[in-house]
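Re: [ENG-882] Designed sequences occasionally contain unexpected residues at chain ends

Forwarding the minimal case from QA. Structure tokens:
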């Protein structure tokens, strides 16, 4: 089974991808990782949310991957592709634009059996969706969405769930269609978020379950016993954008923290085996 994995540039996505890669061969999955560039500036947001985004991304680039290779971080050098090759023997390919014609041509020629997005922040256009359709068969481009659909579409949905004490359901695996998080649902994760830990820690701690969910879905697809996708109830949908400073402050009064560096250091050590500094960051 040839699986293409489109992986975002955040800590959660890379933890999930490495956990999946470690188990892929044993599950009969040949994995090819694509690393799409972030299309908009990660620092558009201000205040606490900008700090949260920077922490999640910069930990990977400046601390975690350099620690894996025992080297000092160098600006402009991407270690993620090297890590997938060195740790798992898997090719990881940076992609500037997933909808660019030359990339689409190469993607089509690769003949992947399935493609799954894990927090890819580029929107999949109609052409790339069409590449993964096989006549009347189940569409073969899926998205692992962190959040319970359709109530939590959009971004930073774990923050919304924690702020609303709505903890059930960490992931929804769904078919990619031209909308944002609107495609039919394939599988749902029954796990719950942990209200005593920060948003970023919840993302990290959920990642192994997300990897297992993907492997389970791929295995069931291969055996032909995956249930038919179910249409989302769009009347019950809510789409969430990045939280405002006011929303973050209101959530903080309920004990919801965006990130805590010391806490995430524990998660990174447990999940990736990497020691990073434990200095606390503003939550």
């Amino acid at each position: 089974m040839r699986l293409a994995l489109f992986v975002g540039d955040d800590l959660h996505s890379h933890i999930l991808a490495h956990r999946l890669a470690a188990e892929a061969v044993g599950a009969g999955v040949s994995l090819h990782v694509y690393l799409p560039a972030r299309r908009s500036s990660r620092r558009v947001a201000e205040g606490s949310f900008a700090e949260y985004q920077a922490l999640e991304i910069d930990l990977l680039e400046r601390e975690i991957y350099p620690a894996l290779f025992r080297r000092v971080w160098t600006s402009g050098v991407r270690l993620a592709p090297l890590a997938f090759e060195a740790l798992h023997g898997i090719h990881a390919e940076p992609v500037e634009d997933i909808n660019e014609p030359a990339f689409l041509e190469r993607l089509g020629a690769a003949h992947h059996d399935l493609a799954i997005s894990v927090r890819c922040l580029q929107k999949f256009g109609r052409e790339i969706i069409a590449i993964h359709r096989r006549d009347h068969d189940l569409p073969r481009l899926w998205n692992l969405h962190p959040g319970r659909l359709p109530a939590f579409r959009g971004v930073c949905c774990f923050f919304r769930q924690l702020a609303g004490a709505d903890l059930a359901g960490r992931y929804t695996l769904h078919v990619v269609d031209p909308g944002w998080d609107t495609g039919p649902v394939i599988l749902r994760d029954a796990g719950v978020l942990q209200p005593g830990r920060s948003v970023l820690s919840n993302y990290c701690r959920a990642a192994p379950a997300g990897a297992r969910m993907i492997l389970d879905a791929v295995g069931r697809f291969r055996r032909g016993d995956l249930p038919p996708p179910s249409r989302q109830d769009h009347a019950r949908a809510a789409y969430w954008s990045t939280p405002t400073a006011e929303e973050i402050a209101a959530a903080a009064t309920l004990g919801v923290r965006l990130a805590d560096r010391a806490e995430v250091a524990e998660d990174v050590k447990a999940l990736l085996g990497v020691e990073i500094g434990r200095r606390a960051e503003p939550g």
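QA comment: On inspection the terminal residues look reasonable. The mean pLDDT is 90. Proposing we downgrade this to a documentation issue.
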